[in-house]
Specification:
The protein has 159 residues and is mainly beta. It contains one helix and eleven strands; from the N terminus they run H-E-E-E-E-E-E-E-E-E-E-E. The strands form two sheets. Strands 1, 2, 4, 5, 7, 8 and 11 form a seven-stranded antiparallel beta sheet that branches. A four-stranded antiparallel beta sheet has the order 6-3-9-10. A hairpin with a 6-residue loop joins strand 1 and strand 2. The protein starts with a helix and ends with a strand.
């Protein structure tokens, strides 16, 4: 079985499993994770969070056994023009009827102290914790080949 077939089968399984969660107000699309290399001690996950509900929600935390610590992070440019990665303890607002992208160079889920290397095609179990929607468990594929701004457009999870 080719890697593409395996990934398509995993995506189909995740889409079916995700659709069974809660009322479907929060949907996760196009999630992927990456690390800088096999010896990297940190990695990150990116996705689009869509809120199809009638009221705003907030992603307030994330957890995973893939790392010793998982935090919500963003990038900010300081007064010297240097980009810094910062922990965002208050999380990310997800307005009603809108989407919030977690993307390279912006908001993202940060994995620190990886328990094993992120390898191409591996699946990373992650629990996203929302203020109102509660916990949303997803499996995020590792994609070390994706370039910034590229989207697969085929992975969907919902709560």
């Amino acid at each position: 079985m080719s890697l593409k077939s395996i990934l398509l089968a995993a995506t189909a399984t995740l889409t079916v499993a995700g659709a069974a969660l809660a009322d479907g107000a929060i949907m996760i699309e196009d999630a992927y994770a990456r690390a800088a290399g096999k010896s990297a001690k940190a990695g990150a996950a990116f996705m689009t969070i869509m809120n199809h509900g009638d009221e705003a929600d907030r992603l307030i935390d994330a957890k995973s056994d893939a790392a010793a610590r998982v935090e919500l992070h963003t990038h900010k440019v300081n007064a010297d023009g240097v980009a810094q990665m910062l922990h965002v303890p208050e999380g990310f607002a997800i307005p009603a009827g809108a989407a919030h992208p977690l993307a390279r160079g912006g908001d993202h889920v940060m994995f620190m102290g990886l328990t094993q290397p992120f390898e191409q095609g591996a699946m990373i179990p992650v629990t996203l914790i929302f203020e109102k929607a509660g916990e949303v468990q997803i499996e995020i594929p590792v994609d070390l080949e994706r370039k910034p701004g590229e989207g697969a457009g085929h992975q969907k999870h919902s709560n």
